[in-house]
Amino acid sequence: MLIVQKYGGTSVGDAGRIKNVARRVVNKYREGHQMMVVVSAMGDTTDDLIKLAREITNNPSPREMDMLMSTGEQVSIALLAIAIKSLGPDVVSLTGPQAGIKTESIHSRARITDIDNSRLIAELEAGKIIVVAGFQGLCDSGDITTLGRGGSDTTAVALAAAVKADMCEIYTDVDGVYTTDPRVVPDARKLDSITYDEMLELAHLGAAVLHPRAVECAKIYNIPLHVRCSFNDNPGTIVKEECDMEKNLIVTGVTCNKNVAKLGIFGVPDQPGVAYMVFKMLADRNISVDMIVQSSMRDGVNDISFTVSQDELRKSLETIEEIIKVVGATGYTHNAHVAMVSVVGAGMNGNPGVAAMTFGALADEEINIDMISTSDIKISCIIKNGEAEKAMNVLHRRFALAEATNCNCCA
Ligand code: ADP
Ligand code: ASP
Ligand code: MG
């Protein structure tokens, strides 16, 4: 079999852990499999590199940030290749560009556009284990790009598609995908399997265990993902198209995203084309907007609130100053101390009462809801950042997610 494995930052956090990963990879290789391994930067390296740049300036160049951040993964591939070689097998480490990964010309969150697999195939045919740096690629101008925080998962899945791997395993520091973050809710339950669509929603809404674009890519190329722990041999979670066990559940999981900031524009004239102008100006600056709420019109003006990721708050505030002048709004506000908690489940479509249960659970804990957004398979609420953990625990309890046989129905 041709197996792609990905090991995250904690799994390669120090020399001992890198040796542990090397042993796991070599054991598989000695069973007769072809092995391609993707690694993240060691431990908190990426955060530390970002902090270092911020000590120099608050507004570093995106190109140089990608140059800087990509070094973290380069350290890991070299060390893992050294560890594998010391156990015997032939091995080669490759950066993203050396592995043929091409991306869009956008820094800090580029999408993979193509993979030239010729070098990968040649090295595998030569019998080598390949170790590839996650999270990075090369854009048309020849510059290094990165794929967004947590993007090594996407590297692994894209490579698995490019070499038509038989299996893609994502090794991390928990045993699989849980009903919610097991580090926040102690009685979170591990799921044996989950569908691509549900996983995609969980990942988009903050479940860091998988990068959303990794799930998107796995769904498009129909690659089952096996999420497992690098520190034991426990069975993990399979992410795939169909899921027999859990498919009738109304709610599959609870997530939280703390990388959220809320902005509000007051006194926006109530005229056709104004919302277009506001969000076009944000889009033109590459700012990705999530939740949008427009309050009902009073005296010919509206208030428009929306959320962005905290990393884009500074750029958003600069843009709002311009927006206010262009559309003739009266003022604006922002709050960086918010979080978005969400209840997710494919079965909630057509099941009345999930919203009421969600709001009731938050009300019982006196948690105030600032903004609400819903879709067929999720309900998201913006709340105070400091209340996020309490909210996750109460929602997990209210929907009985700790119980394997729960049907968490509201009837
Ligand atoms: P890696 O460095 O291996 O990529 P991440 O930190 O990116 O690891 O992702 C794993 C973490 O995701 C876990 O330690 C856990 O705290 C968090 N997490 C959040 N939501 C979930 C969930 N629903 N199931 C499992 N882990 C989750
Ligand atoms: N090292 C990068 C990060 O910390 C990518 C990854 O770990 O997937 O976001
Ligand atoms: Mg990750």
How would you describe what is shown here?
The chain is an alpha/beta fold and 411 residues long. It has a domain at 2-173: Carbamate kinase (3-Layer(aba) Sandwich), CATH 3.40.1160. The protein is built from eleven helices and 18 strands. The strands form three sheets. It has an eight-stranded mixed sheet with strand order 3-6-2-1-9-11-12-10, with helices on both faces. A six-stranded antiparallel sheet has the order 14-15-13-16-18-17. Strands 5-4-7-8 form a four-stranded mixed sheet. The longest helix has 25 residues, at 62-86. It starts with a strand and ends in a 13-residue tail after the last helix. Residues 406-411 have low confidence and may be disordered. The chain binds adenosine-5'-diphosphate (ADP), aspartic acid and magnesium ion.
Keywords:
binds adenosine-5'-diphosphate, 26% strand, binds aspartic acid, alpha/beta, 18 strands, 411 residues, Carbamate kinase, disordered C terminus, 8-stranded mixed β-sheet, binds magnesium ion, 6-stranded antiparallel β-sheet
Task: Briefly summarize what is shown.
The protein has 11 helices and 18 strands. The protein is an alpha/beta fold. It has a domain of 172 residues: Carbamate kinase (3-Layer(aba) Sandwich), CATH 3.40.1160.
